[in-house]
Write a structure and sequence with these properties.
The protein has helices spanning 18-29, 63-76, 89-103, 149-153, 176-182, 241-265, 307-332; strands at 3-14, 34-38, 106-109, 112-118, 123-128, 132-143, 158-160, 164-172, 188-190, 193-198, 204-206, 209-211, 216-221, 226-235, 273-277, 287-289, 293-294, 297-299. The protein has 333 residues and is of the alpha+beta class. Strands 1, 2, 3, 4, 5, 6, 17 and 18 form an 8-stranded mixed β-sheet that branches. Helix 1 (18-29) packs parallel to helix 7, helix 2 packs across helix 3 and helix 2 crosses helix 7. The chain starts with a strand and ends with a helix. The model has no long low-confidence stretch (mean pLDDT 94).
Amino acid sequence: MKQTERQETDVLIVGGSLEGCIAAASLAKAGRKVLLTLREGSLGGAATGGLEVSLFCEKIKEPRAAAYAEELLEKAGRAEGTKGPLFHDQRCKLVLAQMLEAAGVTVLSHIFPFEVKQEEEEIVCLAECKTETLEIHSRALVDAEPYGAVLAMAGIPWQPGSSKAYGAIKWNGIPTQALAEALEPGSICGEGFLIGMLQPEFSWKKNGIICGTEAFRCFHSPDFGETIMAGVPITLPDFSIFTLSRAEIALRGYAYRLRDTLRKTRQGFEKASIIHIAPQVEWYGTRRFAEKRRGRLFSIGLEEYTNEKAIEAGVACADLVQDFLEKEEQEGK
């Protein structure tokens, strides 16, 4: 029988997404004790596991958010030898871990929450890990999951939102010139990078899930020798835990059929090979909640994902939580 371990913290952040990491670092820098839990073994969410590897720092106007973006791009992109707005997904995981460690955030991986109870002076989250059950007591809890898992556990009503999720595929063996010729008009080409839209050759349906119905983004770095096709649309028949699993399976099937088709139909793609199929599908906006906050429970609640929006949302959420805690402390004096 598993033992129960009690943990106490000022703020519990559930989810290792980019927005969750930024919120955690911001709160820790403000002097709060922060615990961040994630289901996976690595940080970054869509920015890393979802292979969304562009970061246009100039789009961010809030100074603290802009500083986080610059740090990520410098350490996970430019330090790797690339130029422009692209960073390396694997390096970004390490940079986020270093950022959280420097801020004093405690990070626990492979943690699976299953119950959230809100009480007058605290919020309690019960979670399973390999060796024990955690009973985490916090003054505030932030749901940083892409589909509002904690909000749902807390009983906040929701409705189906977007009928699409998005996946990504990483490739090598695609020459820069061949990709440039295959992209839709309007692509962005700079020193060391190429970004544009690729119209898919076909769509593919399995278990009611359809992949590849629209054009998707391509990020190409000759410095890394990689091409990432991100934002591959996955049309969902419904939203359930079974649909989540089936969508990931459907993405894998689509990826290998896309590889075979591109090799046959696109000049220069004959040696295109899949390095990696994103282990994390982007579920942002697939659920819509009636409330984004209830008492001590906060949600970052992105509807449409970009790395720029995620960083801005993380800073904004940290400010809301900090204001709540400061007000509570002042009222308690």
